[in-house]
Amino acid sequence: MTLRKVLIANRGEIAVRVQRACKEMGLSTVAVYSEADADALHVHFADEAYCVGPPPARDSYLNMKAVLSAAVVSGAQAIHPGYGLLSENARFASLCAQCGIAFIGPPPEAIARMGDKDEARRAMRDAGVPVIPGTGLLDTPDDALRESGEIGFPLLIKARAGGGGRGIRRVDAPEELEKAFLTASAEAQAAFGDGGVYMERCLDRVKHVEVQILADAHGNVVALGERDCSMQRGNQKLLEESPCAVLPHETRYQMMEASRVAARAVGYQGAGTIEYLLCEDGNFYFMEMNTRLQVEHPVTEMVSGIDLVKWQIRVAAGMELDFGQRDVKLSGHSIECRINAEDPKHGFRPSCGKITTLHVPGGPWVRFDTAVYQDYEVPPFYDSMIGKLIVHAKTREECIRKMQAALCELVIEGVTHTADLQRELLASQAFLDGSYTTRFLSGMT
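Structure (tokenized):
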């Protein structure tokens, strides 16, 4: 397939990131935007732009009919969904195919299979990938109580659909189970339209480590190293680094091979991420697969030298990967800090308003992925992330110092944001020695 024009079904920094890759490949770009984003950077940078609805995402960016109509009217041959929004929607991917438009992502069948967390666990178990002990889908709190004896406490009740930390509840004792079950199910129903939940053992003091994979339609699958995403607040990632500072070489190799097996088992194509929990004893367990580009993909690009977005587009056009696993050379260390328009001192309350002053850090191997600009008005309707600061250096120690310097240089006035919190996290002893786990921030606050 020859691509000439790509519609980007997203907003914010990821829309700008995809536009950049398209332009470097000589492709025309089409933006879609809500009424609230009429002055957004991705709209100004696109070759064409179409308004797809009012500010709420459900009426604009999640409006499949409007997005597909814009693609048809513009003559776009492909749609890149970015991350979030429609990126893991199997129905949308199927509709793209029905309209004769390439979906820059995995096949709808792979999205559906891995998007159903219960089905994903079964598929991984059948493929020989280590899976956290747990249950299948549960219909009632009584079913959950009966199954809890096999798992033990603490345990997690988890939604089978969606992600982003929603539909998850920790349960420490039997008397907490019914309320947690009903709350998790209701939250999942509201967020994803699917209230199905299951349970799995809660593993404390673990690291959240994920492996980036790329796969084409010709059977080639490569793993591009791992990212440590353990610095989290309420299951939301704040900071990521690659490689993981405490992962033994042999475990890294096993994790990457397991990820390649997992991708092949579901007929995966494109960029994807296999997420694991790494225990203190060195064992790791499959948690879930994200069938899209990750927010933290730049750290992998920094250490691998591979542009993941360009390869997403090439794979969607039918191209074969021109490198194999033995050709992957990972070099140095990279850290990404998410800059969110939130107030850490007041419960991470979202902050909206006009950016009155903006200064972006510079220097070798410093990257700031963002869609904000001087006098940009941060709207209240969408995710709070306004930028990602990424650095790369030869060693982890040098990388930490480089990030500290870059954060000091970053100036964003007019909204409250998380740069100072990131500096505090980087200076903590647990981060410096690499021992931090997913529970670290709850111990700080």
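The chain has 15 helices and 22 strands. The chain has a mean pLDDT of 94.
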